[in-house]
Amino acid sequence: MSAEKIALYGGTFNPPHLGHVRLLQAAESEIAFDRVFVVPDKRPVHKICEDLALDAERLEMCRLAFSGPRCTVSDMEIARPSDSYTVYTVRTLTEKYPQAELYLLMGSDMFLCFHKWYRWREIFERCTLCVASRQTADDLKALRGYAFSQLRVYVKDRAGEHLRFLAAEPLEISSTALRAALAAGADMSRYLPAGVERYIREKGLYGYKAQR
Questions:
Q1: Contact 22/108 with Cβ under 8 angstroms?
Q2: Which of 39, 61, 127, 175 is a plausible cystine mate for 10, CB 3.0–4.6 Å?
Q3: Domain named Cytidyltransferase-like: which ranges (predicted)?
Q4: How far apart are CA 99 and CA 121, in angstroms?
Q5: What is the distance between the terminal CA atoms of the chain, rounded to a whole angstrom?
Q6: Rounded CA separation 201/64 (Å)
Q7: Which domains, and CATH codes, for the chain?
Q8: Whose CA is closest to 27, among 40, 38, 41, 43?
Q9: Contact at 8 Å (CB) between 90 and 104?
Q10: 82, 144 in Cβ contact below 8 A?
Q11: Is the dihedral of CA 174, 176, 180, 183 positive or negative?
């Protein structure tokens, strides 16, 4: 019997947008996950974010954005009393599912600073990193170069030891710009899952006020 495959998808998700959804879809198209854990950060260690939605709001938006019988939106990082580091979540999952193969999903921006993460080597030993990529020659060259220079991993085509590059088209707007546009009352429905966009409007998150 093959090992259970588990995906860990962490992030601020402030808010969860279609770029996040596409990354998970790209991973699921290549890897038959048995379980998917979507885990919002309690407080972003790598980012300064003054307009962070409440924990309960980000959890609910993630439930609206990500669905499926194998997908669980978890508060394991939000509920943690200490600072939120990915390595702690990785340890929790590997202790609970010791025979499983663990895959950590991330965008290329987070991958390119992965060597600065707390205890990144331990994460890399325990997980396979699944990194979103535009799949252009320049993009793959940059990702491969970083993997070799910082992580000492040689990547042939789109895969190396503990590392895979996914064909996932990123959202052509940053989360910061998305929140600013929402605060200005702009229609951002083309960037957001329908349920998330509706929730933001109804709750008035990020200072959203519909234009009259």
A1: no
A2: 39
A3: 8-180
A4: 20
A5: 59
A6: 14
A7: 5-170 (3.40.50.620)
A8: 38
A9: yes
A10: no
A11: positive
